[in-house]
Design brief:
Blueprint: E1 4-13, E2 16-21, E3 24-29, H1 32-38, E4 45-55, E5 58-64, H2 67-79, H3 85-94, H4 97-106, H5 109-112, H6 120-140, H7 148-159, H8 164-177, H9 183-192
Parallel strand pairs: 3-5
Antiparallel strand pairs: 1-2, 1-4, 2-3, 4-5
Helix pairs in contact: 2-3, 4-6, 7-8, 7-9, 8-9
C-alpha cells in the first residue's frame, strides 16, 4: 500500500499531478483544495499523503496535502454507503476540511448538498453517518469555552457508550452544579445522573 509520496513534480494539472520518485512517475489525483494549497509547479518538490484504491481493473492513487484531508476522505468512503472515491474527492474539492466538519456537526444538509454530486438525501446520509465520528475529533480540538477536564470527561463518557450530544449535556449539567470538579468527578456524577 502506497501511503506517502515525496518527490519531484513532473506534471501538474488541476486535480492531478505526476510525482517522480526514484525514476518512476506516479499519477496522483488530488482534490482542488490540496491543489490550491500546493500550487504545484513542474520541477518543484512535493510531499503527499496518499490512499491507494484498488479495483479489479484499475489501481488509483489519491493524494492529500494533510493527514486531516486523507482522514475525511477515508471516513467518507469507508463509513457512508454510496460514497466512493470520486464523490469523496468532490466533497474535499467543494469545501475545506474545517467547513466540512462544521457542516456535519451542525447537521447542515443544505450546505452539504451544494457540493457537486451530492443531493439532499446523500447529504443527509453523510451527516447521519459521520456526525458522531467528526464530533469526536472536534472534541479534542482546543476550544476556549471548554476546560481540559470537560473535554476529558466528555471523551470518557463517550468511551463508556454515551453519544456525543448526551455526553456533552451530562458534562455541562455537572459543571453547572460543580464548576471546580475534575474529569474523574465529572464522569462519576455524569454516570449517576443518567
Amino acid at each position: 500500500m502506497i501511503t506517502r509520496l515525496k518527490g519531484e513534480v513532473w506534471e501538474a494539472l488541476p486535480g492531478r499531478v505526476v510525482v517522480g520518485c526514484g525514476g518512476v512517475g506516479y499519477q496522483v489525483l488530488i482534490p482542488m483544495s490540496s491543489y490550491d494549497k500546493l500550487n504545484p509547479v513542474e520541477g518543484s518538490l512535493i510531499d503527499l499523503r496518499t490512499y491507494q484504491h484498488i479495483r479489479e481493473n484499475s489501481l488509483t492513487l489519491y493524494g492529500f496535502v494533510s493527514d486531516e484531508e486523507r482522514d475525511v476522505f477515508l471516513l467518507l468512503i469507508d463509513r457512508v454507503s454510496g460514497i466512493g472515491p470520486a464523490i469523496a474527492m468532490a466533497v474535499l474539492s467543494g469545501m475545506p476540511v474545517e467547513h466540512f466538519k462544521q457542516v456535519v456537526v451542525s447537521g447542515d444538509a443544505t450546505a452539504m448538498s451544494k457540493v457537486k454530486g451530492i443531493g439532499k438525501k446523500t447529504a443527509e446520509r453523510v451527516i447521519l453517518e459521520l456526525k458522531d465520528k467528526v464530533g469526536v475529533a472536534q472534541t479534542w480540538e482546543q476550544n476556549p469555552d471548554r476546560s481540559d477536564a470537560a473535554r476529558d470527561a466528555e471523551m470518557g463518557l463517550m468511551a463508556l457508550g454515551f453519544k456525543q450530544a448526551d455526553a456533552r449535556k451530562s458534562v455541562d449539567k455537572v459543571l453547572k452544579e460543580n464548576p471546580a470538579a475534575d474529569s474523574g468527578d465529572i464522569i462519576r456524577m455524569g454516570l449517576r445522573g443518567n
